[in-house]
Amino acid sequence: MIIADTGFFIALANRRDRFHEAAKRALDALDEPLITTWPVMTEACHLLLARLGIDVELRFIADATKGAFTTFDLTATHLPRIAQLMRQYRDLPMDLADASLVVLAESLGTGRILSTDQRDFQTYRWKNRQPFENLLGSGD
To answer: Which of 2, 34, 63, 66 is the most buried (most CB within 10 A)?
Structure first.
């Protein structure tokens, strides 16, 4: 499975986003399903509504309903690790959505991700030492 971050979803939806074409190419090249987390979905919905309107936000929810990606269920047992990660990366700072993706990578045993957040996902490590492999590219 390939992890999908908020920026990837925003780039797919927004033709004016500098990562739009890279996101489309990456999605077309995939032969594995996408997975994300509820915090990423929440963040994506907020940004889609604010930037592109309710119809685009509803299309994102429709895509999720149709199985365009899977959503990983975070539980209360993940909260101590999320807090630890947010403390560890406080200088960036790390938000809940990003922390949830690190926990997801640790659960999957892979850090293959689609993200427009080049800096942070080059810095973050899953299982404290494993780097993420961003499959999106630079968007240029």
So the answer is: 2
Model confidence pLDDT, tens digit, residues 33-65: 999 999 999 999 999 999 999 999 999 999 999
Report pLDDT for 140: 52
Q: Which helix (H) or strand (E) holds 136?
A: none
Q: Tell me whether residue 22 is in a domain.
A: yes
CA distance 20 to 11: 5
Range of the domain at 17: 2-134
Helices (H), the chain: 6-13, 20-29, 38-52, 54-65, 79-88, 96-108, 118-123
Give the CATH number for residue 107: 3.40.50.1010
